[in-house]
Amino acid sequence: WNILLIMGQYLTVKEVSERFGLTRQAIYLMIKEGRLKSKRIGPFILVPESDAVKFQVEKKLKRVWAVRVKR
To answer: Is-above-0.85 flag for pTM?
Structure first.
């Protein structure tokens, strides 16, 4: 699993939570709800970096649209 982290293909839950500015519990909940994909490797839950980036972009787009709708 170490090689996957080194290659930057997967992020730990802690890394995702720091990137989004959310708690780890919130990230676990998003995984449980299916809003973020994950892979369990041994005791670790890893999130594909591509899915984390996609989720981050969608989150920003929702904020932009919310601001436009309010105007």
So the answer is: no
